[in-house]
Design a protein that fits this description.
Keywords: Signal. The chain is α+β, with helices and mostly antiparallel strands and 125 residues long. 16% of the residues lie in helices and 24% in strands. Strands 4-5-6 form a three-stranded antiparallel β-sheet, with no helix packed on it. Strands 1-2 form a two-stranded antiparallel ribbon.
Length: 125
């Protein structure tokens, strides 16, 4: 039954923009349209230099682009997966693309990281 509730929470979050308790992410509105945002409403980004299910943003890169971390007991579902980073931490990925926030975004809805180095883009559902 818990798994069914989990699916319902995920679908409700994706369709209605509600915050699924497990995922730390939801669909939000920004000037770029529908965008994935974290639990605080901060825009999430994907990195062109990542490969499917593999982050290539480590060290100083990860300080500027903090990974959306996943708890040890987090469960994957459909488009949401968890990757293990080079440092052993777990990170959420959407459709195989690791998700990050941008240190220079200061408030929910900011999209200042979109287009940085021609390699960073808002994560869209």
């Amino acid at each position: 039954m818990l798994k069914v509730g989990f699916v319902v929470a995920l679908l409700a979050g994706a369709v209605l923009g509600a915050q699924p308790a497990f995922a730390q992410a939801k669909v939000g509105e920004t000037s770029k349209g529908k965008t994935l945002v974290d639990g605080r409403g901060m825009t999430l980004y994907v990195y062109d230099r990542d490969t499917p299910e593999k982050s290539n943003c480590n060290g100083a890169c990860a300080q500027n682009w903090p990974p959306l971390t996943a708890a040890a007991d987090a469960k994957t579902m459909e488009r949401w997966t968890i990757i293990v980073r080079d440092d052993g931490t777990r990170q959420w990925a959407y459709q195989g693309k690791p998700l990050y926030s941008w240190a220079k975004d200061s408030k929910p809805g900011d999209v200042t990281g979109d287009g940085v180095a021609n390699a960073w883009h808002v994560a869209q559902p």
